[in-house]
Specification:
The chain is about 55% helix and about 0% strand. It is mostly helical.
């Protein structure tokens, strides 16, 4: 809470009020719909692929639909006056390389965890004292008389 108060006070002191940009009159609703559809289809394919199988027609259909809707998004963004994501940004080699690198790293994380299921038990690094005594032997259970 104190950090929030300090941030509000600092913002009021140092941030200057700016006028609304008159050149920007709207935002790209079709671009938002196409980008959301692309991301939904991609995530759905990645989530369901371990259940359906990576070569299943459902998985391949979702991946194909991802490509089609993604291409429609790129076409839309390249032809509109006020794009949601200006494609000229990707002319920058550092930005493009960083984006590709982050995608590769995120897909590598998906690949590593694709075989894991929610129903598998999580193994703890802490020793389970109920199962083994400190010397590694099974604990002796005492019986109450």
């Amino acid at each position: 809470m104190p950090v929030g108060i300090v941030a509000v006070v600092m913002g009021l002191l140092f941030l200057k009020d700016t006028e609304r940009d008159q050149n920007s009159k709207s935002f790209d609703v079709p671009g938002i719909v196409l980008l959301s559809g692309t991301l939904f289809l991609l995530l759905w394919a990645l989530i369901k692929a371990p259940d359906y199988g990576w070569g299943d027609t459902k998985t391949l259909g979702f991946l194909g639909a991802t490509l089609v809707v993604g291409l429609l998004f790129v076409l839309r963004e390249s032809r509109t006056k006020e794009p949601l994501l200006p494609l000229r940004l990707f002319r920058s080699l550092p930005l493009s390389a960083g984006t590709v690198l982050m995608l590769m790293l995120s897909f590598d994380g998906c690949r590593r965890t694709a075989g894991q299921r929610a129903h598998q038990p999580v193994r703890s690094a802490a020793p389970d004292r109920r199962r083994h005594a400190p010397d590694g032997r099974s604990p002796v259970r005492s019986r109450r008389p």
